[in-house]
Amino acid sequence: MSVQTNASRQSAYDINPVFLNRWSPRSFSTQEVPEDILLSLFEASRWAPSAFNRQPWRFILAHTQEAREKFHSFIGEFNMLWCKPVPAFALIISEKVTEHGENRSASFDAGAAWGFLALEAVHKGLITHPMTGIDFAKAREVLNIPETYEIDALVAIGYQGTPEALPEQLREREQPSQRRATKESVFEGSFGRSLK
């Protein structure tokens, strides 16, 4: 599938357009995502790098009506303003304690897996929206998540809807956000030392 570059975003250096096209819309269509397409996102995440190849990430998927309603019980009030039509959710968790002790890179590695998932979603014509506006304690209880796992984020997955489907206060925010300049995020040799 060829990817068209999002016209509202420009990169300073040459990169694949998929990075510019990934953003986090809130307007979702109610159209269900076929299971094989949905699972292809998790297949992509499977190939993310991780320390010692521990692959600490796990995903708890909700793509049936019953499962979605269970997830709705711990999604924050603001996010529920736009989450009701979302056809699939994935709660990202990471194994922070293993037989080798504390896994300090668990959430870092889970973040890499999330990044792979998000980029594959763009490739498949889907959108994703990660969020931490959830009740973490309730999610742990409702989904029986062991204490050895960190809850990292909840991701909404589906096809893009129209801005008009959103509550009025969210419509103006329904556009890709910009980023600070690359050189503002990269230091040379020590903290705060700008690249020349």
Automatic annotation (TrEMBL):
The keyword Membrane is annotated on this UniProt entry: no
Gene Ontology molecular functions: oxidoreductase activity
Transmembrane feature ranges: none
Entry annotated with the keyword rRNA-binding: no
Protein name (database record): Nitroreductase family protein
Location of the region described as Disordered in the Swiss-Prot/TrEMBL record: 166-196
Species per Swiss-Prot/TrEMBL record: Ectobacillus ponti
UniProt domain Nitroreductase: residue ranges: 21-74, 94-159
Biased composition annotated in UniProt, kind: Basic and acidic residues: 169-186
Gene3D superfamilies xref list: NADH Oxidase
Homology family: Belongs to the nitroreductase family.
UniProt keyword annotations, A-Z: Oxidoreductase
SUPFAM superfamilies: FMN-dependent nitroreductase-like (SSF55469)
